[in-house]
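User: Let's play a game. I give you a shape written as tokens, and you guess the letters that built it. Ready? Here's round one.
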């Protein structure tokens, strides 16, 4: 059986269910490290300190070691002519697809972008907020185990909508010792001319600290392996990050109305990320058994069938629960990256969901639509972090500044309260800043 069935009346107390959940939450540290025995934290610590101390020299040394690329400080950055040449060599039909998808993403991001609200007026007081973009943001595009040109769109377009002035891209030189031409072509299409041949933790270090050839940025976004995730975690606070990304995951809430073949295909699609995980939570034992049978039928038709089988056996499960409410409890507890809802009343189920990165409603909305085409970014929280993180959006590249304006009458009205607070806290200079304006010092 490629995927196990767990039937339980109390899923949040069932050891097998909790083991699946905990495996997903540990995945950001362990599953992305295919060698398993490497001390990721120690390696990243060494790289960060080295790049900060030696700059370009450290970058070229690490690229030679990690990506087998013989670079110099002068060749860390991809030339403008090379970017244009990659665009000229790209398939016109694919570039047209890129434009259509970029339009979808842009339209969605513009619709959700935070706008400055009218100021709250309270007497002679004006209280408001203003949203402004970060000055510089970097997009990390993986390129070793898999190429994700869609990631370029899902990160760059939101930054553009936010109004970020300088957008930088870094991608490992793993395609004949260079950045993949498809990534460069999309960069050109989106107007990105600052691209670096840098991968892994060295890229994150350079973008966070800066070197002789790489100017530091204010925010770093984009997925990567365990080393990228750990490096982003370590530099968070010096720069902003989107989240700590781990292996991709989906949880499906379904009842007996769902099509077993379609659900099986959705689970296999997620397992294809390798590592990837798929959990089905259903009220129907019949559906559960039908999905297992459908997975067995579909597996032989797919590339890397054995890797998919291993992913389903190791990181996936089908959980049969007594009620839809119990299924929603599991979904909220797992707080997965992707959540699919395929039931007789999807809206009622949606109302019970509190934690999920991206939610896909109905039988005709599989996750790959969100991966490539729909509009919301596919850069999403994983490993249970949807409890406190959300999808990457244009708003992640904005920061708020509160705005306060008082007239003299309002200052006098609030003066006594401010002076009282400041005096109780022993901050006499704070009180004096009010006294000097209101002549309450008695002098």
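Assistant: Ready! My guess for every position:
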């Amino acid at each position: 059986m490629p995927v196990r069935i767990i039937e339980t009346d109390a899923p949040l107390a069932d050891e097998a269910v909790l083991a699946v959940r905990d495996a997903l939450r540990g995945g950001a540290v362990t599953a992305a490290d295919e060698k398993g025995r490497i001390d990721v934290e120690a390696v990243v610590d060494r790289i960060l300190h080295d790049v900060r101390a030696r700059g370009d020299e450290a970058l070229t040394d690490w690229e030679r070691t990690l990506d087998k690329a013989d670079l110099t400080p002068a060749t860390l950055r991809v030339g403008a002519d090379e970017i244009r040449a990659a665009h000229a060599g790209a398939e016109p039909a694919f570039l047209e697809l890129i434009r259509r998808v970029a339009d979808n993403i842009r339209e969605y991001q513009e619709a959700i972008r935070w706008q400055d609200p009218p100021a709250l007026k309270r007497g002679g007081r004006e209280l408001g907020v203003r949203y402004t973009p970060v000055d510089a943001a970097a997009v990390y595009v993986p390129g070793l185990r898999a190429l994700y040109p869609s990631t370029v769109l899902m990160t760059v377009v939101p930054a553009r909508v936010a109004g970020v002035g300088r957008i930088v891209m870094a991608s490992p030189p793993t395609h004949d010792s260079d950045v993949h031409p498809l990534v460069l072509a999309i960069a050109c299409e989106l107007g990105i001319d600052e691209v670096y041949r840098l991968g892994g933790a060295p890229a994150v270090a350079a973008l966070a600290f800066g070197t002789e050839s790489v100017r530091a940025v204010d925010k770093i976004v984009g997925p990567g392996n365990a080393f990228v995730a750990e490096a982003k975690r370590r530099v968070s606070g010096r720069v902003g990050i989107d989240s700590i990304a781990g292996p991709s995951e989906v949880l499906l809430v379904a009842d007996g109305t769902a099509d077993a073949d379609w659900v099986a295909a959705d689970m296999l699609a997620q397992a294809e990320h390798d590592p990837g995980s798929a959990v089905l939570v259903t009220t129907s034992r019949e559906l559960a058994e039908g999905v297992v049978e459908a997975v067995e039928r579909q597996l032989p038709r797919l590339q890397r069938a054995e890797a998919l089988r291993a992913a389903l056996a190791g990181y996936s499960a089908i959980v049969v629960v007594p009620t839809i409410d119990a299924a929603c409890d599991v979904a909220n507890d797992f707080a997965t990256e992707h959540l699919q809802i395929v039931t007789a009343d999807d809206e009622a189920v949606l109302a019970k969901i509190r934690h999920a990165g991206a939610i896909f409603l109905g039988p005709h909305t599989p996750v790959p639509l969100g991966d490539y085409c729909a509009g919301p970014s596919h850069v999403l929280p994983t490993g249970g972090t949807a409890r406190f993180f959300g999808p990457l959006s244009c708003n992640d590249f904005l920061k708020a500044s509160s705005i306060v304006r008082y007239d003299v009458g309002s200052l006098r009205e609030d003066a006594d309260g401010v002076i009282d607070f400041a005096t109780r806290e022993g901050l006499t200079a704070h009180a004096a800043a009010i006294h000097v304006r209101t002549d309450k010092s008695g002098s």
